[in-house]
Amino acid sequence: MTYAGDDDGTVDPGEVVWTWVPYEEDHSQGKDRPVLVIGREGPWLIALQLTSQDHDRDAAQERRAGRLWVDIGTGPWDGRGRPSEVRVNRLIRIDPRAVRREGAVLPRPTYEAVVTAVRAAHRRG
């Protein structure tokens, strides 16, 4: 997980892109959504799903359900300018050819905070 975000047309860690993401409970279904690319694993991109839903209000319930979120603020990935959160304890493998479009480059300090939260979430198991 090394930051490489820039707007060069190649998908790199630190960038928010749009792609199809399977639902956790049924991988045969899903939806097109923004994700934050945090790294690579061989030919795959490793990403985290974004949401504009505010999970701060139900953080205890989300933790009990096994979902951990980190606020990343606003960005051009959301046309309505809503603040976003990224789920740090569900890694998603994405075929780079499945990326529909680039949404934005996340500021490096925000990316580093997310990666720190990902590492902490995965140490907990």
TrEMBL record:
GO terms for molecular function: DNA binding. The keyword NADP does not apply. Keywords: Toxin-antitoxin system. It holds the Pfam family PemK_toxin. Gene3D superfamilies: 2.30.30.110. SUPFAM superfamilies: Cell growth inhibitor/plasmid maintenance toxic component. Belongs to the PemK/MazF family. This is Growth inhibitor PemK. The lineage of its organism: Bacteria, Bacillati, Actinomycetota, Actinomycetes, Micrococcales.
